[in-house]
Amino acid sequence: MSEKDFIWAIKIDWLNVLSELEMSSINEIPEYKRQKAIKSITKIFGTEELLSFKPKKIDKIVANELKELMKKELISRKRQEDKLQDQINSNIIPLKDGGIMRININDLKDLNLDGNPEDIVKYFYKKFLNKDKDKDNKDDDKDKVQEDNTGYYI
Fold first, then answer.
1. Would you say the C-alpha torsion 66, 71, 73, 78 has a positive or negative sign?
2. 0.70 exceeded by the pTM?
3. Per-residue pLDDT tens for 120-129?
4. Under 8 Å CB-to-CB from 42, ≥6 apart: which residues?
5. Contact, 65 vs 41, CB < 8 A?
6. How is residue 70 annotated by DSSP?
């Protein structure tokens, strides 16, 4: 096939193809797979017919062809994203009532910022989320200061 057979490829809007494939950069698609998809589509439809298609239809056809060619890469990418999401969800400490935590700067004086990040997370967890609820409630009853108890603050 000559280069004239691929003249229809000018109509491809790669940004639409990337959004269809849920990718952010054209560099995520190897050049040889792009060329292989264009050659395959040209063989299936023919140059004249492809020139008559609207650009959106061409983008859809190219995206579908690339999905088939990149099936393994897309599956492994999806697995990595799921694994990362699970890892993030397991590392985040959920607040029971949601909202914002109030932090007293004096509570941070024992914190070793040069230490292990896991130790820092454990420190915050112990310091702010493992408090006895009854102890806090008893202290609140003795205070004559009116506080805003509607949420937590940072």
1. positive
2. no
3. 777 777 766 6
4. 1, 5, 6, 8, 50
5. yes
6. T
73, HSE (Cβ side, Cα atoms, 13 Å): 12
Determine the Cα–Cα distance for residues 117 and 47; give it in Å rounded to an integer. 58
Longest dimension (CA), the chain: 88
Report which of 37, 47, 45 is spatially closest to residue 8, judged by C-alpha positions.
47
Q: Residue 41: is it exposed, middle or buried by C-beta count within 10 angstroms (0-12/13-18/19+)?
A: buried
Rounded distance, CA 30 to CA 45, Å? 23
Asked if residues 61 and 41 have their Cβ atoms less than 8 Å apart, the reply is yes
| Of residues 16, 10, 19, 67, the one with CA closest to residue 42 | 10
Q: Are the C-beta atoms of residues 13 and 55 closer than 8 Å to each other?
A: yes
pLDDT 10s digits, 9-56: 888 999 999 999 888 888 989 999 999 999 999 999 998 999 999 999
Q: DSSP alpha helices (H): ranges in 4-154?
A: 14-20, 31-45, 47-52, 55-69, 71-91, 117-124, 133-142
Q: Tokens at residue 126, please?
A: 């112990």
* Cα 75 to Cα 125: distance, rounded to the nearest angstrom: 36
